[in-house]
Amino acid sequence: MTAASSKSGFLVLFIFCLSVTTDSWGAIDKRVAVFVFGDSLFDPGNNNYINTTTSYQANFWPYGESYFTPPIGRFSNGRLIPDFIAEYAGLPLIPPYLEPGNNEFTYGANFASAGAGALIDTRAGFVVDIQTQLRYLGDVEKNYRDNLGNTEAQQLLSSAIYLFSCGANDYGTFVDNNLSIYHSFTDEQYTDIIIGNLTNIIKGIYAKGGRKFRFLTVPLSGFKDGETACCGSGPFRGNNGCGGMRGIKEYELCDNVNEFLIFDSAHPNEQASQ
Ligand SMILES: *[C@@H]1O[C@H](CO)[C@@H](O)[C@H](O)[C@H]1NC(C)=O
Ligand SMILES: *[C@@H]1O[C@H](CO)[C@@H](O)[C@H](O)[C@H]1NC(C)=O
Ligand SMILES: *[C@@H]1O[C@H](CO)[C@@H](O)[C@H](O)[C@H]1NC(C)=O
């Protein structure tokens, strides 16, 4: 993230901290499906399978070092929030939609793509944008209808949980994201456009029967260091060069990753996700 931006991505992320349903987590059925949308905070490795750059991929060391060997593409030292939610619900890890060989999606699918935002303009060409993510849900829906029949497919979609981490990347927080649309509106107008696009995605899911939506919330803190990243370079290890694969070869890696809220310049560590 660049300090220069007045429109902090993290701030925006936290604006989305609302839950729009009244059902209780306690009622979760073990056979429920989970569908995941959004950006790098939730991407389980979809970007391994698209034509993009290492700026939007994390399938190299030290990513995953605390849990996944070899690294499988999560922007963390280990698991992400959707992984813990699946685990706590008694489900297997929700697979990346684009991973070859997955086509049943018995317990749902994860469509999230590092770099994606609520706008298709954001990192266009390098990410799976959110509208494409919704189309992929349509493909899964068709698959369910073909294989389970309409009634069971409908039940699965309406009892499913829909998780979102979306919005931060629409802001000019990264040097390679300089959208003209970002500069042509006031902050309020721009936020309305983002909320408007996200609302359309939610309406699209609602039309398919979806009712249980969850949006990323502020993590509990409890860490020794909430400012400096574990992995990266420069002030606060804030340069996005963890792993030495994004143009910056040299970077530092902390020894005690669990003391740091943030793993690389922009993403929480595994314990924060937990
Ligand atoms: C991948 O993207 C690059 C840069 O956008 C482009 O030049 C190249 O043709 C693409 N390759 C494929 C296989 O689509
Ligand atoms: C970003 O775009 C604005 C206007 O489109 C331009 O004035 C500015 O120089 C650009 N910044 C970078 C870092 O390219
Ligand atoms: C969605 O984003 C586009 C820019 O990609 C914008 O033109 C459009 O007005 C937005 N839609 C809503 C409903 O805000």
In short:
The protein has helices spanning 9-15, 81-88, 130-148, 150-159, 180-183, 187-207, 270-273; strands at residues 34-38, 108-110, 161-165, 212-215, 225-229, 231-232, 252-253, 260-262.
Low-confidence stretches: 1-30
Tell me the major beta sheet. 4 strands, parallel
Shape: globular
Share of helical residues? 25-40%
Radius of gyration: 18 Å
Averaged pLDDT = 86
Bound ligands, each once:
2-acetamido-2-deoxy-beta-D-glucopyranose
The total beta strand count reads 8
Family: Belongs to the 'GDSL' lipolytic enzyme family.
Keywords: Signal
Organism: Tanacetum coccineum
InterPro entries: GDSL, GLIP1-5/GLL25, SGNH_hydro_sf
Give a topology summary:
Elements: H1 9-15, E1 34-38, H2 81-88, E2 108-110, H3 130-148, H4 150-159, E3 161-165, H5 180-183, H6 187-207, E4 212-215, E5 225-229, E6 231-232, E7 252-253, E8 260-262, H7 270-273
Parallel strand pairs: 1-2, 1-3, 3-4, 5-8
Antiparallel strand pairs: 6-7
The structure holds 2-acetamido-2-deoxy-beta-D-glucopyranose (NAG) (3 copies).
List keywords for this structure.
signal, globular, binds 2-acetamido-2-deoxy-beta-D-glucopyranose, alpha/beta, two-stranded parallel ribbon, single chain, 274 residues, SGNH_hydro_sf, disordered N terminus, 4-stranded parallel beta sheet
